[in-house]
User: What shape does this take?
Amino acid sequence: MSGAELAARTEAGRALVELAARHGAEFLDRAAAHDAAGRYVAANVDALKTTGFLAGTTPTEFGGLGVDSLHDLVVAISRLARGCPSTAIAANMHLGFAWHIQRAWRYGTAEDLAPLLKMLGTGQVVTCHAGTEPGGRSLLEPATQARACPEGYLLNGRKMFATNSEIADLVTVYLTIVDADGKPRLGSAAVPRGTAGMTVLGNWDALGMRGSGSHDVVFTDCLLPADAVRDEGPVGAVSLPLWAGLFAINFPLVGTYLGIAEYARELAVDAARRKRPGSALASQVAEIEVALATARAVLERAADVLDECLARPDAELTQDGVDVALHEFQAAKLVVNRSAAAIVDAAMTVVGGASFRTGHPLGRLYRDVRAGPFMAPYSTLDGLGFLAESGLA
Amino acid sequence: MSGAELAARTEAGRALVELAARHGAEFLDRAAAHDAAGRYVAANVDALKTTGFLAGTTPTEFGGLGVDSLHDLVVAISRLARGCPSTAIAANMHLGFAWHIQRAWRYGTAEDLAPLLKMLGTGQVVTCHAGTEPGGRSLLEPATQARACPEGYLLNGRKMFATNSEIADLVTVYLTIVDADGKPRLGSAAVPRGTAGMTVLGNWDALGMRGSGSHDVVFTDCLLPADAVRDEGPVGAVSLPLWAGLFAINFPLVGTYLGIAEYARELAVDAARRKRPGSALASQVAEIEVALATARAVLERAADVLDECLARPDAELTQDGVDVALHEFQAAKLVVNRSAAAIVDAAMTVVGGASFRTGHPLGRLYRDVRAGPFMAPYSTLDGLGFLAESGLA
Amino acid sequence: MSGAELAARTEAGRALVELAARHGAEFLDRAAAHDAAGRYVAANVDALKTTGFLAGTTPTEFGGLGVDSLHDLVVAISRLARGCPSTAIAANMHLGFAWHIQRAWRYGTAEDLAPLLKMLGTGQVVTCHAGTEPGGRSLLEPATQARACPEGYLLNGRKMFATNSEIADLVTVYLTIVDADGKPRLGSAAVPRGTAGMTVLGNWDALGMRGSGSHDVVFTDCLLPADAVRDEGPVGAVSLPLWAGLFAINFPLVGTYLGIAEYARELAVDAARRKRPGSALASQVAEIEVALATARAVLERAADVLDECLARPDAELTQDGVDVALHEFQAAKLVVNRSAAAIVDAAMTVVGGASFRTGHPLGRLYRDVRAGPFMAPYSTLDGLGFLAESGLA
Amino acid sequence: MSGAELAARTEAGRALVELAARHGAEFLDRAAAHDAAGRYVAANVDALKTTGFLAGTTPTEFGGLGVDSLHDLVVAISRLARGCPSTAIAANMHLGFAWHIQRAWRYGTAEDLAPLLKMLGTGQVVTCHAGTEPGGRSLLEPATQARACPEGYLLNGRKMFATNSEIADLVTVYLTIVDADGKPRLGSAAVPRGTAGMTVLGNWDALGMRGSGSHDVVFTDCLLPADAVRDEGPVGAVSLPLWAGLFAINFPLVGTYLGIAEYARELAVDAARRKRPGSALASQVAEIEVALATARAVLERAADVLDECLARPDAELTQDGVDVALHEFQAAKLVVNRSAAAIVDAAMTVVGGASFRTGHPLGRLYRDVRAGPFMAPYSTLDGLGFLAESGLA
Assistant: This one.
């Protein structure tokens, strides 16, 4: 590659990125099959368990690799995505959640996280963060409810786009806690696989990211013990520590689209070298390079701003710091999504009609890349709305 | 629709456009199934036979509707495409070819076209123009050869993207005539269905336009009588009358992408009306309207320039007139392709994650619309190269 | 030019366009001087009087050229603008007003317009439509007031961007009529040059269009006879006949930016031919051609829709027809503004650093072209807002 | 500002950036006057002398601030440009040259640089790098010649866009050394103010950057002593240490356009807060935020890549390292130029017609920002050509 690709900034990050690159290369061969069948990338996730990749963001104290830089995590996700975008988002959902737990353990007051971290540190446990609801306001006012009952809480509700749900050992959700007395509260819960009342529908069938197993998960009078539901503050507001978790789960996801762009660029350049030169061909390549440099840069800068924002205990997080970080994150997400889509499109233009036939990887990338704008916390529409408000604040 | 949709300019054109609108509405329901299965739109083509739509561009003398305005033809194709883009390109390939024959009959010296026109006028015959070859230079120097032999000519070669080939009664091709003595000449032939040595591979499997049956067609010592191969002039140049035919076959095709854009716009506006208003939502709608007005305008203007260029006998066609028409055609094609892709993308943004699930029509349109830039005579790369040369000429 | 330039559709229009082309070529030499000095293009306007150009939209019955197609008018304005954009907008403001008067005479009930039409038919009278107010809502609720008094009306208020005001024989304004009894009404008036209480400030000094003399005009107890103020209906709404006038005054203005684009394209192509070829150079040329074809097409289509909408008496105008016409007009305005700006920018890129030095015409065009988005009735912001509403209606 | 503005990474850099911010705020008031008169920003440069700002990149050993990070230098230039872009490019040309000299002193073998560094360390000396020639190939094959003569060398030639030339104590140039025997060599020279045979034309008059005094400089038999001309290697190639100098002189220049964008954004947001809200207004603000985040990010990333490339002695510079750095630099330059132009344009859209009147700062920024694409080493055309080649290498 002519430009400078992103590189990890910490020792632990370098190890994770290197693993990601190896896994990505290995997963590339299977990506077409997973896509064609719309089949969850279970074998890839097993491979990620074997090497300890899934313990990447768990502290070394618990056997993990100890990556705590979101910068390095987003680079690792991008490398994985060069091979298989579906696997990249699957791995991301788990690694982001595990990062969130390590932060809670490191800075928070929650001393009960050691058992969970030990599990995560084995790299054998896979989690699913079921963050989206049909109504689209899952975070501020989850329609999913945990209603207090004598034995604990009864969960009812439905989540969508629950990547990994097919095999996840733990499904984490936000919900509204409804006690007999008192106002509704925002809560979270981690529901173990096999809990009665939790059904994974197996209904993921989409334009792209077809291997990500992003099924719906339905809770019907799903009983949880009282201490399994965590109070996250008042409904309608996102606390600063919660934002930290949201950053960890959703920001590195953006790396997926950089990885897609990088692979598309490689396909384009390979094809261009074999074609007779032409002015339009050269211009497409130049614009691909510009778009790629742009995507890398905005991702790196947002990652740096996030890492700086989060490099302090919960109590020292500031609304301003989080706002600025969210601003840079959303701008970066938009720019990476646009750049990656433009690169895939230009790559198809360079490659020509062959890229339109089923089996050519660009057709898959064209579909996968369109998932980006829908990703949480803000879709393109909500993200632009947020940036306008933030800009005028 | 708020803006002014395109309307036919001739009486015959209005009849064709009205038919197209009815057929389009009818085909909409089946579009998803054809797409999912990658199955040729045979039932739709049968419906187009029944109403005489396929005789649209055949003179009334032969029982057709007598549409000779490419403007009106492109409008009709766009209406059909609102319902089923695959059917639109299938119909187009036939109607464009039939237009070319009526023009040859009207202005040319070829008195032997009456039998063919009678067949076309029944509306029961479907043709396939197999215009593309693997090497990509099929028009200027076809690799497919017709080699003289005592019984006539032996055809050998391979064509791609041969829409309608699955059921076509006639497959038309450009080829290089190789006589024992003399230089190679450019030729054309129409090969009847079932001719020994012509094999339709049934291998169409692509990202979009999955119902168009655009299979490969292989000729292996396919014997044609001497008078079935027509001399089209020296190899390496396209004669003015041949350009007329190319315009008729390839220009109305662009209407397909306008139809896609119009349907995507409808889906977006329907969804937007049900959503809570927002600045980003409004802006997406505004830009959809701008892009749609643009696509319609460039298509209409190019159509007018083409119609004016072609409203004279072959002998009075001028290189300048054809050059200007090609310039406007290629610019319009680029703009419609870009606008339509932008509209589909914005429509997905407006609709949200639901549009990413299999079964939502926008996912199909997102794939179908990407076919446009590859279409003949010039892909995006070649079209931009042509426009630069033309601009500097 | 490689593409097809716009051409008039009527005989009268062809005469006007031909005159415009001759005048434009003549004005090109003086454009730099007018721009440098920020001096009104008085000599050019005198030349336009001499040839009868200014009587272009006055009926032949009154000695004018009788152009009533807005399509042909916009083409004529574009030709003039190839030479001098400031003169083009100056001429437009007059010709649009005169068109409005001929329509009122033709379809309206106002039999008292003959004297005015006779004056306009001489081509010696220049009008100024002072349509903008500092507050920005001049059309719906003019802050300028005509207050009834025993001798007629006293005008008070301030208008901006009043092109031609420096020498105009008549200044036309919209205002709010305030009678002693009754609700405020929307009114219009034409104030003769030299009327006491009307002051032209001579303060036009702007980034571009520096020769257009678009000064502020201030009314201070300016006394008009009672019959000089015309009742235009209730305040806060624009009647359909008023829309016709707004179309005539503001739509052909858009042709100015096409003319700018066409001249910029010529400068770019001339320079490109003298440079050593390069891929980026070719791509800039190709994109200039695409943008130019786009600008021409949207302008032509909007013109056709407007002409069709207006080809009927006031009583037969429909809200739907006017809405659709406004929709196409605003979309076309946006696209022409964007395309023209992009073409000027690309032309500077092609020409190189020389275009940045004072004296090179592209520097002037770069400044002139930026006026477009501010033009009435809707600036870019309001136009996008309108298109979103219209699209969702 | 909602997003995260760029910040210096070193202690020395922070001091320079802070000075730049203070100077920028102070220069803002005078910017309009310099622009209107097209008068060199002499008073600003005097102010920069007074605070030692001009010694910013000179090592502390010689009394300077010791900034050696190009990252921090580009941030400082951007801060200065928020107030006065002409002053920013004037300061940049000097600081970049001084940086180049400190590097040559630090890593090179040239022990004779101490006297020059002492001068630079006073902050009282201003240099002018006259890097461009009419023919446009000044770096690879300068048309300016130094012909050997008994007393040393006679310089003949012409340089353009020589910012600071009006008052510079030293004018530095690249030239072709022509000895009686031997091949032409690439050379450089620093010509002191007042040297006979060097004439500064005082002819700078341009669309923007009107205060930068970027006059032509003409050499006519200008006699220099033999040791004043330095041999820089073979003609037609740029050595790696020379690239380091080119980076230092040309890269921080890009910061000027970020500063323009940041000031334009401020003007837009201030205006938007005073307007009634609207969807199009919000969208313009959102896109301004996205473009600003993009510009900052690409600039920061390119700066980091450059700093890493240059953090080693000349002998350890690698062609690969320089190539990658140039790739990122050129991509960043393109993106910043595009983003800054888009931001200024959107800001005018937000502010409305007021921004079109002479005296509003946005009119000046609109003209200043257009200088960016012409800047060395590669204009937009050459930069895109380079990126295509680099991408395919």
Q: What stands out?
A: Chain B is about 50% helix and 15% strand. The interface with chain D takes residues 278-283, 286 of chain B (CB under 8 Å). The mean pLDDT of chain B is 95.
